[in-house]
Design goal:
The chain crosses the membrane at residues 12-38, 357-375. This protein has 981 residues and is of the alpha+beta class. The chain is 46% helix and 16% strand. Helix 16 packs antiparallel against helix 17 and helix 16 packs across helix 26 (898-913).
Length: 981
């Protein structure tokens, strides 16, 4: 460790050096051991592979000898049997038991057979597996198959048959097989045996019956009239190679010097289709296997050379190979190829290497705790301090630090970090408490209380800069943990530079003064607490983020205490900055809320001032709604015992109440103010009266025309007077209908229609003097004057069409469920006079009701903060009904908020009792409550809230403030509530 650079010692702890050294030593040792073991394992794997190759070659040589030698001896023995001279099938069957014994003695042989020079053939083959039985259509219990071709003496047809036997040579089935076309004299084994004396072995071939790769041993008799032979398959050699593969991808194959493959683990590749062969198959060549390794190792056209061990690259892999001769016969050499990828041979070596590495890592991991413990007593205190610093970084301040250490510097550092921790924790706690306060006056008191605690002062005060920026105004004061009123404190002009607080403001720095008696005028109030004793004053200025002055804080401490430390002063200054920001934020928020409230009341006042028909409705509904909400808040039992209002809830309710009719700014005044049925921008009853006047003048004229024509004056006068009286009566009736004061019965409606049929003559063009828009809407061509018109008319120009854009879609995003009239206005005279109740048509009532739709749309479009998101729902729900038949969303009681249901009651009660509406007289308490009682029974208003409205006395408190004395009659609230409510 002494040889390490100084920077490394300075930047890394001791325990890291120790742990790193031990780790590197163990890792290097483990890696060295692992590499040595890996190299040795590779050599061992190569040696083992070479030994495996040699062992496989020896075993294959022995297997060939065991396969060939017994079969050759068996054929030699068969060539000396009486079967060779048998002349027909009967004689040949007498030798069947001998053939069975010979096959049983040599399981390697697939079959024994004899071919004669006349083309006859006799064969006995074993059926040792189900696959072979299925291929030869043999019975399930068949063990042997005798295949016979008996040419005979030439006078009879050739006899061809299959006879199936069980293990005891009991015949199971005898099948004639005329399709068994086989001539032994054309087979290689027959030709080779006839051509030379002694035992012969054929080249590999595909067997005629089963299509397997095999070879045959054959031997002729002395006169060459018959040839005995045996067939053996090379399947067992392929199985032996498959079992001897050293690795999964290893290649083992047996081939001859003609490159024919005799044995291969993938036996399905041993034969290739060849139409030129009578069996349709030929032995596969090396090229037919399509193994890239063979193309590199045994290229075509080059002789095969023995190679005990070599390495070659093929197909992107390194291979260990060996080519070994395994014996020869009849001049044909047989070779064994063995090849294995070195990657698989080294698998065990890699496993050992990996285990060594894992063991090394395990040793490192197991030794680390020991190394760590070894260095812990040296760097223990430093670790604790580092951990504590990290906890401070994560703002975790729980617990206290221990200062026990024999190292002075460590003890001092521990004490410093502990003080830092307590200071930051205190600062954050105070900042959090200040930011959590939402009321300005309480915030000032909280700021002062926290500052007194931080400074250890007995009292203090906060002065804020006024709006003019010319003086400091006292805002809060505390003494000995109690809030004190600021009535005794006066304003301090900034022009008075003799004041210590003004000096702190001017210099923008903390003033620390020792106050003696007599004190400055602005600070004489502290004498009541300290008398004439000297007092320390700390006065940090309060500035905002931009460095602008917000106010000043003054703290007072007895002089007997020791001087305030610079660290404490710095803490007070930092805390005063946070306090100043909190104060400024609250002042800004309060100002914004005040501005918003002014806008709200301005809008509500404008709506009330817009039409005398609304009076002070928008100003009184909030008072009534909030009173009912407070009654629910204070309820200790009943359905509202759990209902509580927070300050945010009160703000939401306040805004919703004041804006509940803000949509009325879009409602035409003449619709709101329509006091008669014919009123639009003016009352058209005057037009009707003029027409009656015309008819009366016409009656007078008709009278004088009759007199001039020599008529009876008495009769004419009587007719005139009767008509004039009728016209007077009819106009009086029309004028009465126009007021809409009573229900218009069907008989009155019929009389209106009769009056409307009267005709009067118009001699002037009614298109003269009209605006361009009015002329376009009428779209009436020129009329020949004079014309006769109905006294009360419903003309096409009286109907104003509705703009398609004014029709609310059924799937609108606000959920409105409206029945929109077809026309925007229908100003037909007879149509309006025929209104059965009130003065409004369906179209005008839709416009009146549209104010609540517009209220919701307008409020919903505002970027309301999260806590005000319920304002549109509350403000827009006061025309809904408890039974779901209200307006505009048809909400049921459960779909409405409690506040919306409260406002519905307030809206109705205010409308019924209002005394400032020109179209009606305000109802008394009993009348209004009777109507509302009926409305609760009809599920128009909430029964529970109506009961609270009565029981809490909200209705009476409101009445005493806003109703006339004569309206406040005696009521018994039990009369308006269901029994038990």
């Amino acid at each position: 460790m002494m040889g390490l650079p100084h920077t490394l010692q300075r930047n890394f702890p001791l325990r890291v050096h120790i742990a790193t050294l031990f780790t590197l030593l163990i890792l290097l040792t483990g890696l060295g051991i692992g590499w040595f073991v890996y190299q040795q394992s590779q050599e061992t794997a190569l040696t083992q592979a070479q030994a495996d190759f040699e062992r496989t070659a020896r075993e294959m040589t022995v297997s060939l000898e065991r396969l060939y030698r017994p079969t050759g001896a068996l054929v030699n023995l068969l060539a000396r049997q009486p079967l060779m001279h048998a002349h027909d099938l009967g004689e040949r069957l007498e030798n069947l038991d001998t053939l069975r014994e010979m096959l049983n003695a040599n399981p390697q042989s697939l079959s024994l057979y004899v071919g004669w020079d006349d083309g006859s053939f006799f064969q006995l083959r074993t059926l040792d597996d189900d696959r072979l039985r299925k291929a030869l259509a043999a019975p399930a219990k068949a063990t042997y198959l005798m295949q016979s071709i008996d040419v005979g003496n030439g006078t009879l047809p050739v006899d061809r048959r299959y006879i199936y036997y069980d293990a005891n040579l009991t015949m199971l089935r005898d099948d004639e097989r005329p399709d068994y076309q086989y001539d032994p004299r054309q087979r290689p084994w027959y030709k080779q045996a006839v051509a030379q004396d002694g035992l012969v072995r054929t080249d590999p071939f595909a067997t005629f019956t089963t299509g397997e790769l095999g070879l045959a041993f054959a031997h002729r008799n002395r006169d060459a009239s018959a040839v005995a032979a045996a067939t053996l398959t090379l399947t067992r050699l392929s199985s032996a190679l498959a079992a001897g593969k050293p690795t999964v991808s290893a290649q083992l194959l047996l081939f001859d010097d003609q490159r024919r493959v005799l044995a291969y683990p993938e036996q399905e590749k041993l034969l290739m289709a060849d139409a030129s062969k009578d069996t349709g198959w030929r032995p596969a060549l090396l090229e037919d296997l399509h193994v890239p390794l063979l193309q590199v190792l045994l290229p075509a056209g080059k002789p095969v050379m023995a190679d005990r061990r070599s390495r070659i690259d093929a197909s992107g892999h390194e291979w260990l190979t060996a080519i070994v001769p395994v014996g020869s016969a009849s001049g044909s050499s047989t070779w064994l190829l063995l090849a294995a990828p070195t990657a698989e041979l080294y698998a065990d070596a890699r496993t050992v290497r990996n285990k060594t590495l894992l063991a090394t890592v395990a040793v490192v991991l197991l030794s680390l705790p020991l190394v760590w413990m070894l260095s812990a007593h040296i760097a223990g205190q430093l670790r604790k301090l580092t951990h504590e610093a990290q906890r401070i970084h994560r703002f975790e301040f729980e617990g206290e630090l221990s200062t026990e250490s024999r190292v002075k510097e460590v003890a001092e550092l521990t004490d410093a970090i502990g003080k830092l921790k307590r200071t930051i924790r205190r600062f954050l706690d105070i900042s959090l408490s200040l930011s959590a306060e939402t009321r300005f006056e309480q915030l000032l008191d909280r700021v002062l209380a926290e500052m007194l605690g931080a400074a250890g002062a007995e009292g203090g005060a906060i002065y804020l800069l006024d709006d003019t920026g010319s003086k400091l105004t006292p805002a809060a004061m505390r003494w000995q943990n109690e809030a004190v009123g600021v009535d005794r404190l006066g304003d301090i002009p900034l022009s008075d530079t003799t004041e210590p607080l003004v000096q702190a403001v001017k210099d923008r720095r903390t003033e620390i003064l020792l106050l003696t008696s007599p004190r400055p005028a602005s600070l004489q109030f502290i004498d009541a607490h300290f008398g004439s004793a000297r007092v320390q004053m700390i006065a940090p200025p309060l500035t905002n983020r931009a460095g602008e002055l917000v106010g000043v804080l003054c703290l007072f401490l007895p002089n007997e205490r020791e001087a305030v430390s610079p660290e404490r002063i710095a803490f007070i200054e930092a805390l005063s900055g946070t306090a100043a920001i909190a104060i400024e934020s609250q002042r800004l928020l309060q100002g914004q809320k005040a501005l918003l409230n002014c806008f709200i009341t301005l809008i509500a006042g404008a709506i009330d001032a817009k039409s005398p028909y609304t009076g002070g409705h928008c100003q009184r509904v909030p008072e009534l709604t909030k009173a009912l909400a407070e009654a629910a808040h204070e309820a200790s039992d009943g359905p509202f015992k759990d209902y509580r209002l927070s300050e945010e809830d009160r703000e939401v309710l306040h805004i919703a109440c004041w804006l509940h009719d803000c949509g009325k700014v879009t409602t035409p005044e003449y619709v709101v103010d329509k006091a008669t049925k014919l009123e639009t921008l003016y009352d058209r009853i005057h037009e009707i009266r003029t027409r009656f006047e015309v008819l009366k003048r016409d009656a007078e004229i008709a009278y004088w025309q009759g007199v001039a024509g020599g008529g009876d004056t008495i009769t004419l006068a009587a007719e005139r007077d009767a008509l004039l009286q009728t016209l007077n009566d009819e106009f009086a009736f029309v004028a009465e209908c126009n007021t809409g004061g009573e229900y218009l019965a069907p008989d009155k409606l019929q009389r209106l229609r009769q009056i409307a049929q009267r005709q009067w003559q118009r001699t002037l063009d009614d298109n003269l003097g009209l605006s361009w828009a009015e002329k376009r809407r009428k779209q009436v061509g020129e009329v020949t004057l004079p014309v006769w018109e109905s006294l009360l008319a419903d003309k096409p120009e009286h109907i104003l069409p509705r703009n398609p854009g004014e029709i609310m879609a059924e799937d609108n995003r606000w959920g409105f469920k409206l029945r929109t009239p077809e026309h925007k206005f229908n100003r037909g005279e007879l149509h309006n006079l025929s209104i059965s109740r009130g003065t409004l048509t369906d179209e005008e009532r839709y416009i009146i009701n549209d104010h609540i739709v517009q209220t919701i749309i307008m409020l919903d479009s505002l970027p309301l903060p999260k806590h005000l998101l319920r304002v549109p729902e509350i403000a827009g729900g006061h025309h809904e009904r408890m039974d779901g038949n209200g307006y505009p969303k048809r909400l049921s009681r459960d779909e409405m908020s409690v506040e919306a249901r409260m406002m519905a009651i307030a809206d109705i009660f205010e409308a019924l009792t209002a005394i400032d509406r020109p179209y009606k007289v305000g109802k008394t308490l009993s009348e209004a409550l009777t109507i509302m009682a009926r409305m609760q029974q009809e599920q128009h208003i909430d029964p529970e809230l109506f009961a609270l409205f009565l029981h809490s006395g909200v209705y009476l408190t409101y009445a005493k403030r806003y109703l006339l004395p004569e309206q406040i009659d005696a009521v018994n609230i039990a009369d308006y509530l269901p029994a038990g409510a």
